[in-house]
Amino acid sequence: MSNTESSVSEQHKIRLEKLQQLREMEANPYPHSFDVSHNSQYILDHPELIKEDEQELEEVERVSVAGRIMTRRIMGKSTFFNLQDSKGEIQVYIRRDDVGKENYNKVFKKLTDIGDIVGIKGYVFKTGTGETTVYAEEFKLLSKTLRPIPIPKEVETEDGETKTYDAFTDKEQRYRQRYLDLVVNPEVRDVFQQRTSMVQAMRNFMNDKGYMEVETPILQPIYGGASAEPFVTHHNALDMKLYLRIANELYLKRLIVGGYDGVYEFSKDFRNEGLSRFHNPEFTQVELYVAYKDYNWMMDFVEKMVEHVAKALHGSTTVQVGDQEIDFKRPWPRIPMFEAIEEETGKDLYGKDLSELKEAAEELNIELEDSFGKGKIIDEIFGEYVEPNLIQPTFITDYPIEMSPLAKKHREKEGLVERFECICNGKEIANAFSELNDPVDQRERFEEQARLRADGDEEAMTLDEDFLQALEYGMPPTAGLGIGIDRLAMIMTDSESIRDVLFFPQMKPEK
């Protein structure tokens, strides 16, 4: 056992003893509720709450606050401590003569620890140093903690430098114990508040256009709408295999068939793939489908919505990401995929057959697998040579048909489809099509995917007979879009890893 583990175990034992003492005193360490009237930020933002010297106590507005004790300075019969709630921290002053001798001496001083959750009722005043402080007239323990909170400690060295000890900075532990991360590193809360604001801005933007937010199945008998491996489960009552959805595209298109002009869904999707800085097997995306539109219209829409999001979060179209300043101001560059590849590699791959593509990939030192078809090879080359260099938001358009079995054929260019991806900060954040609504063509594409799967491509799509039947009833021309919420949040919050924008990311099991 390490020294840290030994220390925690000892403190855990001591706190259990304190808990027992509280119960023996009939001081309930876990009461059912506490009436809170104000939060720390509100008090700090409203100086009219502060008691003036000439005011009588009867004239002063009372406040009731609750939160964790984060630091305290005991001075005999009185104590200053910092209380942290959901909005920040505020100082509290508590005296034995105000809250009662037993409550102060036994409960507060001896049986309460840093990290405990307490409730305070009193009034607001300013100390001699000018700090806004809550004067405690009542004190109540609301939750006794049995494990110590890892509060960082700052110590000044003999050289005058300030050193921090016991900071909760280990990334992996922070992800595994996000609840502690939020307590000890409150700036992390800002990231998730921005993520929520981002989603709300997108939702408001689409609602204002008249599009309807919907819900579609997570458990699906046939997975589709993307190229990915699914998670498999089993329904006992029906005795059938089901899949966690990899996308919600095919169900949303069914709603367009049903007569809606625009539908969207913020969806949890699941892909049975590896973990990385940009990948979590459970992720969030928003998909939008709008009838009678195409991918050119959708590019305009994405520009407008993401520009709106940047302004809503940052008051500007520019966002600082690491050492890069990314500008979401419209218009964004639009570059056909094969032109982008040729610009970076010097190789024109348009119209090349499988053997020519393999030869080009080998010359570019791209590792190939026997199961790779034309689309997969082109995708590997693009991912290696083009995508990492696209920092400012850029539309890559006109993909090969082999890569896009759900997109409509290009109206002018043979062998291509009307598809775009938005690349930003070196990664895809959005994918969109002029949706394929020809049921005969769609069936042929699915059958080609089945051949690729038979040849070993485990990410090839499966044939969905019910979806094909829906198309046969007629789907109008439609533009479809998917935006990765987690990746967009990484950019909007200047976060290095997808784990930084997920409350509870998937982690490898601890040894």
UniProtKB/TrEMBL annotation:
This protein's record includes keyword Protein biosynthesis: yes
Compartments, as annotated in UniProt: Cytoplasm
PROSITE patterns in alphabetical order: AA_TRNA_LIGASE_II, PARP_ALPHA_HD
Location of the Aminoacyl-transfer RNA synthetases class-II family profile domain: 192-509
Catalytic EC class: ligase
Binding site for Mg(2+) 2: E428
Catalytic activity: tRNA(Lys) + L-lysine + ATP = L-lysyl-tRNA(Lys) + AMP + diphosphate
Cofactor mode of binding and number, as noted: Binds 3 Mg(2+) ions per subunit.
Any GO MF annotation of the entry: lysine-tRNA ligase activity
Record key words, sorted: Aminoacyl-tRNA synthetase, ATP-binding, Coiled coil, Cytoplasm, Ligase, Magnesium, Metal-binding, Nucleotide-binding, Protein biosynthesis
EC number: 6.1.1.6
Residues that bind Mg(2+) 1: E421, E428
Cofactor: Mg(2+)
Superkingdom, taxonomy of origin: Bacteria
CDD domains recorded: LysRS_core, LysRS_N
SUPFAM superfamilies given in the database record: Class II aaRS and biotin synthetases (SSF55681), Nucleic acid-binding proteins (SSF50249)
Chief place where the protein resides: cytoplasm
Domain PARP alpha-helical: 1-71
Coiled coil (UniProt feature): 347-374
NCBIfam families with a match to the protein in the record: lysS_bact (TIGR00499), PRK00484.1 (NF001756)
Family, similarity comment: Belongs to the class-II aminoacyl-tRNA synthetase family.
Subunit structure: Homodimer.
Name of the protein in question: Lysine--tRNA ligase
